[in-house]
Structures are given as structure tokens and as C-alpha cells.
């Protein structure tokens, strides 16, 4: 799998050849084709294995801001130049073969969403945020945007950018959750 990731990062999805992956892995194309029916399946399996190395869990640090900073830092560290090239290559190739990109997105969601929810659940329990559905939706939109931005720039986010993302975007947005209807109607009744 490491050979597939290496070749994918170097040449992109379209130019990746099973023969080159086999050569680098010290194997043969028929051996790879016995395990994977085609390039798409090989790349999908390689990406799943590569992404399984990324840890998204954040311990309870006592505040939403601290946990968001730790989470964004861990994502930024996980977005190595090689992984960013892979993500960019998959975006470019997704018009011809969307399966690897869809698989990447689904796998990232399956790993990252539970970690985000844990952070947000703790923040709600501490009284730092209100509406969890609104918070879940916001994070579901912001996290992929950060990854896409890093992939397009082909460089991870620096510390100042991550702090700005947390302080100027995530914290205010998460704290601005909609007021419950029952409270809003009480205020309007006294006008």
C-alpha cells in the first residue's frame, strides 16, 4: 500500500500505473490484480490504509477553544505535503473517476465526525455552546473547506492561520447558535 501512496503522490491518479506500483512494492502486476480488480480499488484501499494512520481524537482539555486548536493542529499536521498532493490529484481526477475521492471523503467523515461530535458534546455539557445540530452542521462545512484550501495551496495551514480559524470563525460561529423558540417567543410576548 505504501508504494501505491508514493506513486499516487508523485504522478497523480490518472498517470498512476499498477506496473509502477508493483515494481516499487517488489511485486508483479498480476499479484496486485489478484488482490485489486483495478487501479481505482488499489488507490481506494491504499488511501484507507494511509488515513487510518491519522489520529483525530482530542482529549478533554477543559475548554472548547483549546480542543478546537488541538484538533485543527492535528489535522494540519496530518496534511503532509505527500497527502496534500494526493488530495489535489484526486480532486483533479474526480471528473473521470469519482470513486477514490468519494471514498476519501466518506472515510474522513467516518473518522473525523465522531471526534468533532465528542468535542462539541463536551462543549455543550460545559455550557460553552447551545444547539448541537447547528454546531454539527457548521463543523461539517468548515472542516472540509480547510482541507480543500490546504490541498489547493499544496501546503498545510500555519499556526497563525489555525488560531485565526478557531478564534475568528469557529468559536464565534459555534457560540452563535440559534435561540430556542420557546425563549424567543417569551421575549416577543413582552414587547
UniProtKB/TrEMBL annotation:
Cross-referenced PROSITE patterns, in alphabetical order? HTH_TETR_1, HTH_TETR_2
Task: State the Gene Ontology terms under molecular function.
Answer: DNA-binding transcription factor activity; transcription cis-regulatory region binding
State the DNA-binding region(s): 17-36
Please report the stretch or stretches of sequence annotated as the HTH tetR-type domain: 1-54
Is DNA-binding set as a keyword in this record?
A: yes
Q: Which InterPro entries match?
A: DNA-bd_HTH_TetR-type_CS, Homeodomain-like_sf, HTH-type_TetR-like_transc_reg, HTH_TetR, Tet_transcr_reg_TetR-rel_C_sf, TetR_C
Annotated keywords: DNA-binding, Transcription, Transcription regulation
Question: What's the protein name?
Answer: AcrR family transcriptional regulator
Which organism does this sequence originate in?
A: Sphingomonas prati
